[in-house]
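A quick aside before the break. I want you to see a complete sequence-to-structure record at least once, exactly as it would be stored in a machine-readable document. Don't worry about memorizing anything.
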Amino acid sequence: MYDIIIYHDKNGNSQILEFLKKLTNSKGKEARVNANKVNDYIQALATYGTYIGEPVCKHLDGEIWELRPLSNRILFCRTR
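That is the input. The structure line, written in tokens, reads:
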């Protein structure tokens, strides 16, 4: 199991949490599907790490990776 640490800026805001909240609060089916898929991919990342590979996550450069739920892209870094 891998630790997922959500980034918060100096004001305590998190773009990914705000994005998920917006999707979750939406009444549309597409938004709910996106929210579920993002949550599923984050859980998969926590379980398997970057070994899960494409199409779930993709290495971009250095320590930068992207999580790829549907048409969404979530950048993250891997640390040891």
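Two observations worth writing down. The first strand starts at residue 57 and ends at 61. The chain has a mean pLDDT of 94. We'll return to this after the break.
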